[in-house]
Write a structure and sequence with these properties.
Elements: H1 2-10, H2 14-27, H3 33-40, H4 45-59, H5 64-81, H6 101-128, H7 137-166, H8 177-215
Helix pairs in contact: 1-2, 1-4, 2-5, 4-5, 5-6, 5-7, 6-7, 6-8, 7-8
Protein name: Neurochondrin
InterPro entries: Neurochondrin (IPR008709)
């Protein structure tokens, strides 16, 4: 994991994305001895490399599937190391793309919000335009899984912000109050997206029921 983290954080070739996929696969496994080993490691350099790699992917123009993998990796890191990983101030001296904790938190949240909006639109299209859609059931199921991962990530961000707001966060947390308010605004916008999706789904279900009743 530490070797892959370095490749992911430092390289700017196809190997970077191969390392991302391998890290996401390894760390997304259920609770395992690997997780305990990573928690007990005294060095934090590997965490910084992963953070730097995630920043590279989310800040640059890459395909949505790679951004989803980076967000999955962020969710895995928070799952293994705790929600406060997102707001820990780990720096690498030779990382030219290092950004502040506040910007990193906002970058992850904004990226998750964009991907949630995209997936909700795609799922809505596949549901209500199924007769015209060429998507397979496997593709739809994968989109649903990706959406679940994003929801889990957002839930962990809510927990992290809650701890930071209440003063229960770790001393390493350095999120300013302005950033906390921006995160809360972003979370509210994301929740609104989900509620709008559910409302549209409800309306379409009622419409389908009425058509069925009329037809029968």
């Amino acid at each position: 994991v530490t070797s892959l983290a370095m490749l992911f954080g430092v390289l700017h070739t196809a190997v970077k994305f191969e390392s991302l996929h391998m890290l996401a696969t390894l760390l997304s496994q259920k609770e395992s001895p690997l997780h305990d080993a990573l928690r007990s490691m005294p060095s934090t350099i590997w965490k910084s490399h992963i953070r730097g790699g995630i920043i590279d992917v989310l800040q640059n123009r890459v395909v949505s599937s790679e951004k989803l993998q980076a967000l999955l990796l962020a969710e895995c890191m928070m799952s293994i190391l705790g929600e406060n990983w997102l707001s820990e101030d780990h720096k690498i001296l030779d990382n030219k793309n290092a950004i502040s904790v506040d910007k990193f938190v906002l970058l992850v949240l904004q990226s998750a919000r964009v991907e949630v909006a995209v997936l909700l639109n795609e799922l809505a299209f596949s549901k209500y335009e199924s007769s015209k859609s060429s998507q397979t059931d496997d593709a739809i199921i994968q989109k649903q899984r990706n959406l679940a991962i994003l929801f889990s990530l957002i839930e962990r961000i809510i927990k992290m912000i809650s701890d930071a707001s209440s003063g229960e966060g770790e001393p390493s947390q350095t999120i300013c109050e302005k950033t906390i308010m921006q995160v809360i605004t972003g979370l509210n916008e994301t929740i609104s997206l989900v509620l709008d999706f559910l409302q549209d789904a409800k309306v379409n279900i009622l419409s389908d029921d009425m058509k069925f009743s009329t037809g029968s």
